[in-house]
Amino acid sequence: MGPLSRETWAQRLGAFRASPSTFMAGPEGEDLGRDLLSELRSEKLSEQTKVSLLALSLEYPAQLWPDGTAAEAAATSLLDTLVLLPPRPSALRRPLLLAATTALVAGDALGPTSEASRRLLPLLLCLACSRDLGRCFGPASEQRPLQATACECLRELESCKPGLLGGCLGLLRGLLGQEGPVQPLSLLLALALRNALVIQAKAGAGLQGMLMAADTPSGGDPWNWALAEEGDTHLQPQAPSWPPAVEEECGLAVLEPSPEEARELRAAVAQLLDTSYLLTPVAQAQLLWLLGWALRGLRGQPPVFFKPQLVRLLGTAQLTLLHAVLALKAAFGEALFTAQDEALLLRRLTVAAQHPALPLPAHLFYLHCLLSFPENWPLGPMGEEAAPLLLGPQMGHGLVPSLLHDPMALLARLHLLCLLCVEDEEKGQERSPQHYLEELLAGLRQRAALDGGPRASATLCFQASYLVVRCLATQPTVLTPLTHGLARLYHARPALAPHFVDLLNRVGPELGEPLRVALRQEVVSQPGRDEALRWHLQILAKVADGDALSATLGFLGAAAAHCTDWGLQQALLGVCRALLRAGAGDGLADLLQALARQWEDPDGRDHARLYYILLAHLSGPKLGMALGPSPAAPTLASSLVAENQGFAAVLMVQEAPAPIRLSVGPRGVAGAGPVLQLQLEVLEPVFSLELRFRVQGQLYAPLEAVHVPCLCPGRPCRPLLLSLQPRRPAPTRLDVRALYTTPTGLTCHAHLPPLPVNFADLFLPFPQAPEGDKLGFFEALWDSCLPKGAESRLWCPLGPQGLEALVSRHLEPFVVVAQPPTSYLVAIRLPPDSRLLLRLEVAQAGGVPVAFRTDDWTVLPLAGDYLRGLSATV
Amino acid sequence: MAQRAVWLISHEPGTPLCGTVRFSRRYPTVEKRAKVFNGASYVPIPEDGPFLKALLFELRLLDDDKDFIESRDSCSHINKTSVYRLLIGGGELWPVVAFLKNNMIYACVPLVEQTLSPRPPLISISGISQGFELLFGVQDFLYLNQKNDTELNTKLNQLPDLLLQACPFGTLLDANLQNSLDSINFASVMHSQKQPAWKVGTYKGKPQVSISITEKVKSMQYDKQDIADTWQVVGTVTCKCDLEGIMPNVTISLSLPTNGSPLQDILVHPCVTSLDSAILTSSSIDAMDDSAFSGPYKFPFTPPLESFNLCYYTSQVPVPPILGFYQMKEEEVQVKITVNLKLHESVKNNFEFCEAHIPFYNRGPITHVEYKVSFGQLEVFREKSSLIWIIGQKFPKSMEISLSGTVTFGAKSHEKQPFDEICIGGTAYLKLHFKILDYTLTGCYADQHSVQVFASGKPKISTHRKLISSDYYIWNSKAPAPVTYGSLLLVRCHN
């Protein structure tokens, strides 16, 4: 494509920005990246247009150059363009540096083997050091801004490849001490220092003189790709992990620097903090976050450096600065903030959270900070919002909500008020916070009741009610007026029914139960023929149950005549379904029959008749199951779908939590092979139980399923015997699934916890040895093990009961020759065809030496573990 | 502490999309880090179209408020900060920092340097406050001295270049965008070692320091036994220091007359180098007593080039400047009103203007007014259903004025007449608007002789003061009125 005019480019860029994905899928998409690079060198385009092209490449490199090769080529081309610029002032140098950096990072091309990286990095470092690069880098007037830009590029590279500049710390310190621009160098040094400390601490290495001020990078290549490789594997969060966690948990191992290193480190940090007032407030905040994080994991480095800065920071209204102070508070706690300091910080936060000179978003953020305040000695559980201990009622009073507040401020302040109410002791007084809370909620309800009022005010009212219930669920003095108030609100504006249903779905029984009753009374006392009928039916479908049935049925009977359209009929049928589910039989049958006769719409009529038949033919629990929505899928609005789901549930196998407990019992009597004795307990009646087993690792032959016709809770069940056929003599676990029928007729399926099969569960005795020569029999077995097998000796610790107890408890069936207390000879058969022979010798203090042989060397470690573990299980 | 993307969206109710993306900027290198840090919980930044739609929905700025929508209206979906989660393409984009101001929505998505599930608390995310500061900075830049839409468009067009300067890689370098604009224009200024990053160049010319103190007074008056009236003064001290040298030092002292009201809740500009602990601790949280620190309040600082707010304060003066009552009674389609206002004798009786606005909400247009005023004149805005009582420059000698009358309303038509959620039934207010020049209610002043400047040349020092009303409400005492907890508490204290 030939050179494009400015207007064409403007159009093209506009189309791209409107929807990058659409543009890239179109005919022009493929060429955009290439065209952009070549146009940057065109002499026809103005600098301004070229800057806008570069701006695009800064935002969408992944779309323009989607893979590493393309990104590498693009970065190379951008660097070439930079070098070829004529030596006069140009607005392109900065964005070209930014674009080359972005292309390399975004395309994953940054690395020691990338040619473009090898060109860009030294260039950036030279610029950052303000070294003379010759005329091609523009006039002297541009050097300063380019130096700053180079620092920014390096900082971004270090952010994306932590540790990359680990070798440049000394150099950067030197530059900062000289005439370099303070802000870019400070931020770059702080970031590189933080990353180096974190990575070295993880690797257990020291700082290795990294901080020594130097004019040139110490020895050869300054890029520490090895350190960056380390850093890559655990890109560290910059935020001190919050709430303050144990050091190991936050991923920051503890680094203990040598005295010399500590001195250098202190000097570097002091250097950074001393000039921090020259930084813009946002940059000061970044510096504090970085240094706080860097020093947090260091032993013996008290954070006193920060103290002189704090008073200055606490005085400001800057969001970032106060936030950074809170970060330091969270990172260092009492080491930096005494109880008095903590009180002062809280005071400043409280002031800031309501200061009329600050904007609303700042107020809200400060309120959040109050509720999540990092206390020195928090009382409540971590991570939960709470009012800080030192925030007394006096301080809290200014933060109490009023109807005049913005909704978000009202909710935030309301939360705080609720937390204060929990602690408040002057309950029931005329002017207590609780009384005020009631008035406030009443005001919100009055607003929500306003006919035609915006949805937002209704939402606010319900959110506030929900918040209050969540915080004060145990206080009847709050819940009772709230329940009455909400019922009155429904009376005033039934159109809020969806909000009521939503509220009932979210709150616990403390409010849910009384509110159900109040709403039901409210609805059934209505004539049932007004415009609000659909809302009444929606509420009833949620709250109707077996209680006050006649009133409910009376209301429905009266309403039926007014349900003239399909929607209303379905809503009424919805209430009937709820009653069927609740097991309300009498009276309902009459209503359903009446509906089946009375309604003209065939769908409504058929449904009524269907419900009547179900009611007449199914027992209570089954009916509930047939009509209940499947727990897996959300109910659709259509009643047909809801019913279909109910029936399908009866026909299909349901996944359910098991009402069955399965465990391995004592060892059974030996048969031909090892047998597990299983014990079964059930929490509810279970019919036609089938247990299926799967052997993990296929170490044994597949197991047969076990069937039990009927199980009842409390009634003992005979033990189930499960024969194992090992293919190898090794322990394993059995996955267990249960398939059963419930009393309600549902077929259910459940996963039970896996059953362990221990090594000892496989032990079998040898067939009876010849009566006279037991010793000879054992010796023959002993000798036959070698040379194919293996022998070992170990020290088997003994518990207080001694050797005899151990043998009688664990090895009794397998003893061939016993000469207590001096020795035992034990022969164990391990299916399918291995053997394990033990010689237990004279017991000594605390243990017994055991020699053992096996003809299968894979058994050796298992036997070792088994013997060592014996004393623990005595 | 970086941002993944920034947007400016104009809110245009009534149009098909209800808004337009006026500016957006993405930061792909930050996005790269987000992908690593967020792991499985990573949700990519959407394109402008889907973002606009999701944000307007969440902020309730689409015109589809009619139906209950659970994902937005559920009682458990509680937002207590200007940080939102947006449902986009099956994912949840969080945290989205956003707020609406002057029909413009400012939004950004800060990088969270850990997994997003479970969500970490906002306080632990450094990018949140950085994001707010960026958006406040953009807002200040757009609306400072902006007069019309053309100017707004010009400034919007400057934004890409400015952010390239102030936030090249998503990490904010300076929230003061005007500084970035200046640094583009003054690229050739030679810098020296100690040049602060917040000061782009140096001033050359006649040295001068200008200090102006603006106090706003708010009030809620009820004229009721069981509810106390409240009022509060909020002060802003603005400085412009034209001084030569890189780091000139200035100390400004604010003083109070002997009967002045102590300044509280003092927040200072970050350029203030040190603060007396008495300034740091004096706060409206504490009960007032005579031992409160009453100045002089010293602020040593190194000024930036531009005009800036040196400090903000609040104060609790002993009496409100104008005390009044408003009685309104409904009688079918008419209301009867009586208003009485009294200027306190200690207040300077020389206004630039003074007006009482009396709106009538949730009613039809005014069809007829009969009234009597003891002073000033009354203007009737029939369609807007409101009255404005123009009191003028001075209260009469008696310091007390009154208005009484009967207002008749026509039938209500929903579109035209103002709707209000609070002023239902008899609940109504009048709002006072006034301004007094060369006066502060606290008595606070900056003495020219107490200003110390350590710079070459003797600067000319000028000081200005003014008092203006802000949220000055007098509620109808014949009906319920919204109260704050403070009003109830004060009564308890007084009783």
TrEMBL record, chain A:
InterPro entries linked to this entry: AP5B1 (IPR038741), AP5B1_barrel (IPR048980), AP5B1_C (IPR048981), AP5B1_middle (IPR048979), AP5B1_N (IPR048978)
A single BP term in Gene Ontology: endosomal transport
Key word Protein transport present: yes
Sequence ranges assigned to domain AP-5 complex subunit beta-1 beta-barrel in this UniProt record: 686-755
Record-annotated AP5B1 middle domain positions: 261-623
Lineage: superkingdom: Eukaryota
Domain AP5B1 C-terminal, first and last residues per copy: 777-869
Any single GO CC term annotated in Swiss-Prot or TrEMBL for this entry: AP-type membrane coat adaptor complex
Keyword DNA repair in record: no
Keywords: Protein transport, Transport
Ranges where the AP-5 complex subunit beta-1 N-terminal domain occurs: 35-104
Protein name: AP-5 complex subunit beta-1
Biological source species: Suricata suricatta
Lineage, uppermost ranks: Eukaryota, Metazoa, Chordata, Craniata, Vertebrata
Automatic annotation (TrEMBL), chain B:
Topology in membrane: Peripheral membrane protein
Any one Gene Ontology cellular component term annotated for this protein: AP-type membrane coat adaptor complex
SUPFAM superfamilies: Second domain of Mu2 adaptin subunit (ap50) of ap2 adaptor (SSF49447)
Predominant location: cytoplasm
Keywords: Cytoplasm, Endosome, Lysosome, Membrane, Protein transport, Transport
Localization (cell): Cytoplasm, Cytosol; Late endosome membrane; Lysosome membrane
Protein's name in the database: AP-5 complex subunit mu-1
